[in-house]
Amino acid sequence: MIYLAMGASGDTWNGVCRLPYLRTVVEGPNMGTWYGGGYWRDRQTLLLNRWQPAKGSVPFKLSELQPEFGGEDLGVLYPKWERDGWQRRGDNYGTNREIKDASRYTVACDGDDGWQNKPSRKHPALIVRYVGYLDHGYTFRFALDGFDDLLDDHVDSACWDNLGNLVYSREGILYKYSLDDLKNGHPGTVHDLEPLVQNEAEQGDEHEPE
Fold it and tell me: Would the pTM count as exceeding 0.85?
């Protein structure tokens, strides 16, 4: 896994780790939260978002990502979606408008055609649209074609897994639906992640994100 992390002092760094651990096998500094991170173009190539490793090594190729959609989240997220089979629903990426009376920098995006993912002819289209840089940063809204009430505005992320199940997170809870579960109207699996706490053995690790 590749990640951009910020420590308690405000320092930021990039790390590559072997899951389920966050201890880095490759790491490098970052200047604030601009750029950083990256994504796998294929099984042997990791594209870095404008940073270079300072220590460590990995048994695959490291290359530089050339962001088409800016230096923050969208520059990594959109090409990763394309890699995973998402397709644009249209050429309109929406119109940004700054919310002047907001307490912090806030931009709403109107009219994004969005992306869709449909793994097979049996699957309904999973749709996502960018709605702006809001209270928690870049914000998206998800919808499932034919199931209008399933994915509301509190859903953080949603995707089809490699078995064709719908997986999404909502307010700290992870839901999984098979196609049969969708027909029945009940999730096959629900995991509440809110009670999780950090392992005491990991709390002092300087290479763990805080």
Answer: no
